[in-house]
Amino acid sequence: MKFIHSADWQIGKVFKQFGPKEENLRRARLVAIENIGRLAINEGVSYVLVAGDVYDSEAPSELTLRSPLERMKLFPKVEWHVLPGNHDPHRPQGIWERAAKTGLPANVILHLDPRPMPLGREAVLLPAPLTRKSEVNDITAWMDRAETQPGLVRIGLAHGAIAGFDRESEAKNPIDPTRPAKAKLDYLALGDWHRTMQVGPRAWYAGTPEPDRAGSQEQGIALIVEVPGQGAPASVRSIPVGTYSWLTREETFGDGSELADMDARLRAIDNLSCIVLRLRLNGAITLAARADLRRRLVSLEAAMFHLDVDESKLQTRPTTADLEAIDFDGVLRRAADNLMVKMGDATSSETDRQRAQEALVRLYLMVNSTAREAA
Amino acid sequence: MLITGVSVEGVGRFNRVTSVRGLGTGVNVLAAGNEAGKSTLFRAIRICLFKRHNSNDTDIRELGCAESQIPCSIALTFEHEGRTYEIRKSFIRSVSASLWENGREIARGREADEKVWELFGIGAGSGRTIDSGAFGVLWVGQGSAITVPAITGKADAAITAAIEVEVGNLVGGKRARTVLTDLSSQITQFLTKGGRVAGDGPLGLAQQNLAQYRQEETELANRLAILETHFNDLSRLKGERARLTDPAARQAIDAELANTEKSLKEGQEAANRLKSYESQERAAHAKLETATGRLNQLTETITRIDSARGREAAVDSEIEALVASERVAREAVEATKAQSAEVERELDQLDHRSQTVQQLLSAVSKANICQDWKQKVASLENSSARLIQITAELDQIAVTPEQLKAIETIERQQLTLEAQLAVRAPQLLIELQKNGVGRVHVGDRAVGERFSEPVLMPAKITIADIATITVTPAIAEASEHESKRRKLDDDQKKLLRKAGVASPADAAAAIVRRLDLEAQRQGVRAELKALGIGGDDASDVIADLTQQLANAGAAIKDALTQSHLTELPDVVSLEAEQADSRTLRDEFQRNRSKLAGTREVQDETLEAAVAKRSGAEAELTELRRALQFNLTICPDGERVARLAALSTAVDHAKTTYDRASGALSAQRGITPMITELERLENRYRRLQEQVHNRSTKLSEFDRDIARLEGQIENAGGDGIGESLASTQEQRELAEREVEKLTRKLDALQLLQKAVSDCLSEGQDRYYAPIRRHLQPFLNDLFPGAELQLGSGFGIEGLKRSSPQPEPFGRLSDGTREQIAVLVRLALGAMLAERGQAIPIILDDALVYSDDDRITHMFDALSRAGQHQQIIVLTCRTRAFEQLGGRSIKIDTAAARQTQ
Prior knowledge:
Strand content of chain A: 15-25%
Radius of gyration of chain B: 79 Å
Distance between the termini of chain B: 28 Å
Oligomer: heterodimer
């Protein structure tokens, strides 16, 4: 038995912080479905199991509602088994009934009830759909009592948090980690956790096929699962299917001389135009380096899909040369000196010190900008 | 520089050569009426110095003489650094320029233009005119005195140089101002002039966006919450509907309903039967009770007949004993009544005697009072008579104290008159020998051994028969004296006549008598008052007392008559008799009370005896009536037969009742309890309602489910969840944007403050020389005041009495004009101190100054004139006479001579 395990498509998710680029990210999530479809064709797989959260919201627009269904429809030889998750639980008149009313493609099978469903002649699927956002009880418990024909591979499909492993899960929806053993499952296909991860001998989280946040899945993944027969261990392969990679990097400066190295390191990342990078900057740099950093970051941002820089931990440490660049003496130099004193005043609040630092940086940039313009 | 003269031709109204000569150091005043051409000369000086000779700009065209075809010529003579110069320029026509130094031409044309500027260190600009440097600041045209000099360009350089010689330069001041301008520009984008966030600025727009997103988010969240509620309600309703439509549950309820209905019906039938048996049993029981009652009634009647007959005999014997007891009681009562009558009679007699004794005592008392009344009547009659007598005597005295006083006054005047006359009159002194005594007479008075008397009227001295000597006082004095004395005598006589007395001594005696009589009358009135008389008339009181005396006499007589006495006994014997009577009365009254108590007991005894006897007689009557009645019911002859018949009837009724009672007990054993029947009825009703409610609920569920489905379909189809997520992200972005812009604004404001503070600190030091020169002038007008100088030598305010400076723009026109002139004087003084003396020219300045202020301004101008040249052009000839200084005038004659 060979199938693709995917989950957490979160179609319709918004990315307003990206401004005009938002649509690229929204479209990439649909492209990921097509990539999975093509992967299935290429791998000769007939079944794609989607373990919940196809949609990001329970009340999407009609366009958003139809979009993933139309993408799945593009691959008629592939049977897509879709399970409601905590983002899109099955409720009367809910999203899935709306989807059904619009006309489901023939190759899309919704699992709205906890009822065994054959997957060809080799296996049977035991789905555990969520009917609310948050379940207190383990809705996979019914799998223990589900009777299936002898010899068939038993595959569980669920969305929730394996008990004791829910630090980053989005809802309670507990699932007993011993469920595969108790229910004699050959594979438990899980959704909810956005990182690809094996959580037991026969249980996997597929991870999202298109990342949507920093500090989580960096690259979109789908799992190709092969179960030779009932009781045989499954072999699982992770295949990249996403478009954009969400990376997080941290750079620490001693004085700012490391800027060139940082620039080189970041530019060495593959496929830079599809990188969403969160860059955390630490340490301290000079005013001159700060000006240089600004120029470099502007260039890097232009090179990448998106650059999010966190400078809150980056301190400015002006040098004598920095201050002389403002003036050797006179009004502006005295103002700069006064701001330096405020920056180092331990009796002031952190906010006031930060404000003094920012004022000094602005003075430096204004003076140098004026000087440049004058030149 | 020192301007010494100017000459013009073809300039303004001067179509002929016109000059002003005699200008020198200190204050120069050119006072002339309107349209004399003062301002034309002022403009001519400026143009001659600072315009190129070949320029043809508006200033020069306007300066030209309209109706003249001659060139516009200006010649200015001045001294500079020990040399004498003259610059001559012709404009518009036949343009030319030449510069003369100590009478020698040193430059012509363009060179002459520029050489002059070179002398004053104000190099040529790029155009055809130059920046006139400090001259532009210190030469004030007509109507410009009110504005503060704008110090820019070469003027700035000149003044700055003068300052920096003293305090050094203000390093970075210009760059700081540039930065501040830039910062102000940036902050202006964020904030309004009032310091509020500008609505159309980046921060304002970001805040508006944030508010809008927050509102949208709230609205969407509410709508989504409602949708979530709908989802939950729908799930719940569907679950409940499924439970209601469960067939197994429905069958169970139907079966329970049928069983309950059957049990209830059976129970109700048994209950109906039981009710019938209970009715039969009650009827049998009633019959038994009726038969038993009749038998008991007959038995009781027989018993009552037998009992009545025994009681009748007993009561007869009781009545006889009771009659005897009643008679004894009546006799005792009569005896007590007789004793009481005797005691009452004794008491009546005692009362009669007591009244008589009392009347006698009263008569004795009245007799005593009558004595007092008689004495009082006598006293009253005596006092009344005395009062009448005193009053009559007082009425006889006509003299009043006032009259006496007037009489005595005249008498004193007479004596005074006599004394005065006596002093002035000749003194007649006669001393006789013993043998002459009696032989000499003055008038009819015989003279003793010595006679001394003033001669107030002719006095005849007879010396026996020897001689008669007449001494006559001066006629005038005697006449006057006589006249006065007669008048006094007449007045005195009139008064004495009016008072009814003959002499002043009589008048005095009458007054003494009047006072004595008034004192006596006061005494008599006091006596009357002591006797109870308020006024002078006591006749009513006396009549009243007399009447009372008569009444008392009649009463005493009456008492004696009733007591059969001829005279009143003494009080002691009467009071002793009265005491004895009281003792006897007390004894009789005790006896009467005792007899009354005895009588009360005897009456009660009699009453009880009568009652007992009456009761016994009534009982006997009733016994006989009842016996008669019972015998009519049950005659003695039918007693046995009736008893037998009633006993048989009772036995029969008892048998019938026992049978009905047994049947009832048996039915009770098989009939359900009433509570059980009620329980079955309740249960049957509840089950029926349950079935009905289920049907109703199903209809309601179907309706609610349809409604919720419609609402969910409407609410869920517009992408509300997606919109909410989008809005939440936009709101978070807006929050970050507001935070970022706020941080930026804070940093800009902090930077602005840091630079401003440093710049202000530098400026304070930088402007010290200007303030030093300004202060004496300022003191001339505003003692103790201080000017606040801002950037670019601007004046921000004037600090006078209050700690806060008054903004310059809010000062009056006059004050602003005065300050603007003072600042020019100070700048001029500063430049002069640095060896760059430039004349200060004021054309029609101080037009807003009042008389007081203008005087102080003259002081300031005079002070300035000590170190540099001041040229004042004014049309206020009289007002500026006080300024003093050098008086100059426009001279056309001199020009003609020159020509």
